[in-house]
Amino acid sequence: LQAMDSCVLFHGVYDKLELLPKPVIAAVAGMAFGGGCELAMCCDFRIASSNAKFGQPEVGLGIIPGFGGTQRAAKLVGLAKAKELIFTGKMIGAAEAYEMGLVNKVVPHEELMKEVMALAEKIKSNGPVAIGLAKECINKSLSLDMDSALMLEAKDFGLCFGTKDQKEGMTAFVEKRKATFKGE
């Protein structure tokens, strides 16, 4: 029961990270094994240095990933690759992690933080209300049927039209200037 309680505690922590209304970027510079790999999987983006390594080696200890790895891996890389990663307990390099869809991008180690900050700046230049609603739609879509997911999208699309950010974004587009969003 104590092990199960730990899992439930970590599920809550990792869920909070995954459900933040702002995008979360994992910069993986070294080893992301077990709970570290599971932590990276709850982020919206995973940028890895070329020397990063990933793995879910828990089965070699007689346990399974307990902090959401069995669920998030399957959603990120598909059932077959998730089973391969988890059932074998093998460690994979950044290139293989990219090929299977576990990471978004691989860059040379010395360029990792520059790449992460460039992505953060690109996201930050867009409407924060829209980003938060888009993240909510994408995350919730995984547990909804298509009709319900499309209805959620339509609702959140409509909500955007009640924001100052929408008015600023569309006005800036028409005026051919960069929008200045305020998150309102």
Report the sheet with the most strands, covering strand number, pairing sense and barrel closure. Answer: 3 strands, parallel
Low-confidence parts: none
How many helices? The count is 9
What form results from the Cα inertia axes? Answer: globular
Order of helices and strands: HEEHEEHHEHEHHHH
Give the strand order, joined by hyphens, for the main sheet.
Answer: 1-3-6
Gyration radius from CA atoms, angstroms: 19 Å
Alpha carbon gap, first and last residue: 45 Å
Mean pLDDT: 93
Structural class: mainly alpha
Helix content: 55-70%
Strands, total number:
6
Strand content: 5-15%
Element layout with pairings:
Elements (H helix, E strand, L loop, with lengths): L1 H17 L6 E4 L2 E3 L1 H7 L3 E5 L3 E3 L13 H9 L1 H10 L2 E3 H7 L4 E3 L4 H13 L3 H14 L4 H15 L3 H11 L10
Parallel strand pairs: 1-3, 2-4, 3-6
Antiparallel strand pairs: 4-5
Helix pairs in contact: 2-3, 3-4, 7-8
Describe this structure in words.
- A three-stranded parallel beta sheet has the order 1-3-6, with helices on both faces. A three-stranded mixed beta sheet has the order 2-4-5.
- It has helices at residues 2-18, 35-41, 69-77, 79-88, 94-100, 112-124, 128-141, 146-160, 164-174, and strands spanning 25-28, 31-33, 45-49, 53-55, 91-93, 105-107.
- α2 crosses α3 (69-77), α3 packs across α4 and α7 packs antiparallel against α8.
- With 184 residues, the protein is mainly alpha-helical.
- The longest helix has 17 residues, at 2-18.
- Helix content is 56%, strand content 11%.
